[in-house]
Amino acid sequence: MSVRPPQSFHQPGFANTGFNVLEYELMSERASALGRQGLKVEEALGALNAWNPERDSEVLRERLRDDAADAVWGLFIQREICGLRNNRDIIKRYAIPSEVLARVGAVRK
Question: Which UniProt keywords apply (predicted)?
Fold first, then answer.
């Protein structure tokens, strides 16, 4: 399969070398991975929000918080790989609760 970057990426004086094509593929994969990680965060936060104290145990809530924190941590790391350092907008967009943010990056036994 051959891939050619969009013409909007074409810069005068640069040939379509293997390096340019590889760089385009890497950018594409980073963006795709960022989207997949965002979906994981949405799923984890959805499961946490669906927790009901009347039918579910507190142990389950603890596990859901940990799963959400791991997914958010993965999203933060993926964003940093893409060069996006500020996470404030993501915290607002996904409405990440402070109880999850407090656990981001924590190592559990």
Answer: Plasmid
